[in-house]
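Memo to structure team: turn this sequence into structure tokens by end of day. - J.P.
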Amino acid sequence: MKKTVIISLSVLLLFSSCASEFARVYKSTDYDFKYEYAKQLFANRKFSQSIVLLEELVQMKKGSDEAEECLYMLGMAQYNDGDYESASATFRKYHQSYPRGIFAEQASFYVGQSLYESAPEPRLDQSPTMGAINAYQQFLDYYPDSKRKAEAQARLFELQDKLVLKELLSAQLYYNLGGYFGNCTGGGSNYEACIVTAQNALKTYPYSHMREDFALLIMKSKFELAENSTEEKRMDRYRDAEDECYGFLNEYPESKHAKMAEQFIKKCKKVTKD
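Reply from structure team:
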């Protein structure tokens, strides 16, 4: 017990000592010493403390040889501290200020990387995802022979898949809502909204590996639309659904949903022939 108390007091004193040392450095006007201390903090992965010093040093070191390194180190400290929004802004500022700088290529990459880390799950607003895609694309345009080219390309594909998935989830939601009209204040139906959303996604992302999923939703929605049609629109919609089923089978003959398409065709034919 006595040994535990001694260890706890020692740790407390150590932290108190470190805190007081940081406070002295923070208040100091010796910016060269503060710069070296900030670098030491960064090397020891004390990113939050290094950020506090580097934010001041970026201003105080303007025009000096250390200014460039201060700005890049600030971006990396913010990134490692999990403040991705600030990091992306700092890396962008670095690249604009030092387009031929020592860290220009890394800064360009980390603009995209920071936005990538802050990109939300597919159901939420994807503005950071779009920002990351644009940033990675700029990086590849600026540095086509970079060692990080493959990594940036892989991130691009991953982020594009996230955008596709968001559209797929939206289309699926419309389909699941089906005949509910509470959200259709502007007219139309959820099945029509599903069809439009899926068709637009196929135009925007023609080579997506989720292409069959969109095609399936279009086919199912057109059939449900026919099933729930007024007498006036019934025949045209069944013919449209039948054509969609044939198109699905032509494009995906080995699909696990082929039997569903064939069943839809039989039902459509029964209506259009009667």
